[in-house]
Amino acid sequence: MTALLERRAGRATAAGPPPGLRQRRRRERLVVLSFMAPVLLGLVVFLVYPLLASVYFSFTTFDLINAPQWVGLRNWRHLLEDPNVRKAATNTLWLVAVLVPARILGALGTGVLLARFKRGSGLYRTLFYLPALAPPVAATLAFVFLFKPGTGPVNTLLADLGVQGPLWFNSPTWAKPSLVLLGLWGIGDLMIIFLAALLDVPKEQYEAASLDGAGPAHQFRYVTLPNIAPVLLFATVTGVIQTLQYFTQAAVAASVASGAATTGGGISSTFGYPEGSTFTYPLWLYVVGFRYGALGYANTLAVVLFVVAIAVTAVLLRRFRSFA
């Protein structure tokens, strides 16, 4: 009897599922595809097509008036010889190496402190989160005036303490660290994510670690960090991508600090002040595309930026798997 059932099952498997089951599965797939169609259409129109178009235009030269002309690898060869690209890439990598870790450590440390507060925790959480609600342009304007070398309240306070304040945004040495301070001031968006992750760590794990003799440092290393590792990865990946696209704060700070706050096409003349210290890669891409009108070369710069962002994200995801 068993052998007979096995032979029938084998014949059914070899013949595939019955026609009624195949039709039901096909209808289910069509229903799923119909629900996903708007998202897939949006991805094709707003991601895949612009990406493929950028790759094509990176091999052309055009200015939005004349038709694109194929120039082969000329834009790519020029990119390797462009000194502005090296300067902008160096500044951007400096910000990625300093600003991203500083924001993550600042937000994580603030979250750890706020997670320990029992009284007035809501007030402190609100106060630390509020700067993140300020628009980037307004926050940068306020920050530059606070750190104004001659009349800013920060240098005035330092002078009262007997310390001569630096030139901040007007100094080639201090301009990028000043942008880091601006980034640290607005860590509320990251802090609130870390705080939610820290409050979600099971208390039983801390109690078990304490019974085993683990101190606060070991509890943080072996209990807290593994539990918030996905949030750390999210903060790192999004922080790197945002810093690779660092534009608004650098442009506004340079414009205001130079004393030539203009709008429209003239603003690009102040990019990088002082002495190119705040000249980031997206700023050079903007100058090439919208000041010089070299949109083919601008597409080359954009494709390189996209490839770098994808490569860094892939490396971080791979390293995170080995860490987890």
From TrEMBL:
Any one annotated GO CC term: plasma membrane
Biological-process GO terms, alphabetical: transmembrane transport
CDD domains in the cross-refs: TM_PBP2
InterPro entries: ABC_transporter_permease, MetI-like, MetI-like_sf
UniProt keywords, alphabetically: Cell membrane, Membrane, Transmembrane, Transmembrane helix, Transport
Region Disordered, annotated ranges: 1-21
Main location, first listed in the record: membrane
Domain ABC transmembrane type-1: 89-316
Pfam families: BPD_transp_1
Localisation per UniProt entry: Cell membrane
Membrane topology: Multi-pass membrane protein
Transmembrane segments: 30-52, 93-115, 127-147, 179-199, 220-241, 294-317
Family in the record: Belongs to the binding-protein-dependent transport system permease family.
Protein name per its UniProtKB record: Sugar ABC transporter permease
Species name: Phytohabitans rumicis
